[in-house]
Design goal:
- It is globular, with a radius of gyration of 18 Å.
- It is of the alpha/beta class.
- It has helices at 2-14, 64-71, 94-104, 120-131, 137-146, 162-175, 192-209, 220-223, 246-261, and strands at 22-31, 38-48, 53-57, 79-84, 87-88, 105-109, 180-184, 213-216, 228-233, 236-242.
- A hairpin with a 2-residue loop joins strand 4 and strand 5 (87-88).
Length: 262
Amino acid sequence: MKAASRAVQSSENSGGISADAATARQVTKTYGGGETQVTALNAVDVDIERGRFTAIMGPSGSGKSTLMHCLAGLDTVTSGRIWIGETEITGLKDKQLTKLRRDKVGFIFQAFNLLPTLNALENITLPMDIAGRKADRAWLDQVVATVGLADRLKHRPTQLSGGQQQRVAVARALAARPDIIFGDEPTGNLDSRSGAEVLTFLRRSVDELGQTIVMVTHDPAAASYADRVLFLSDGVIVDDMNSPTADSVLQRIRLFDGKHNG
């Protein structure tokens, strides 16, 4: 398997600690026990390169969201090891993990998770305000310009379209300059036009701001904005596609579905 072989080689070259944005080694995640045990991830090896946009795809129950949650430190692993940058997160105490997620990781979810009483700018800076950190004004201005919100900063969420609200959520994730951003179906609640807007801004944040993004999606069109697509099935990475197009992703899904149904 291409992804696994590259991951193992990288691990050997780095002594187990990767210079990538995130790394998984032999990660297994199971739920339940005995006859009812379910294996969501089965000895997964993967490297998430810095400054690239990676999409994770797979059928329902394939383990794609579980992999993202484990990589982000939102869920624990049953066995194996995970690093964010050079920090191993498997085994970190809750307080250390919370601090690392706050300082190093950004999140964009399907629900926008904006506070209705705050305007767009206040929602963007809220995580830093809570952490007692001052925003880097030049960086914040660059992020706001990248997501096209300069004329909407004083608007509250109810005064914004769905696409604009999700762009606020993207800007909030970018504003703290995290090492890596995880998106869980970030365009799932948007119409196709608004979804394309948000994906364009995610793409620009990689190209222009050097951001690293990992996005779970079921949509081949959304995956085509990425540099790379990882395909999961039954908790295993079954393919690793670079420079995807919507057509090539769709063909890969159909090929897998044909084998699976056959």
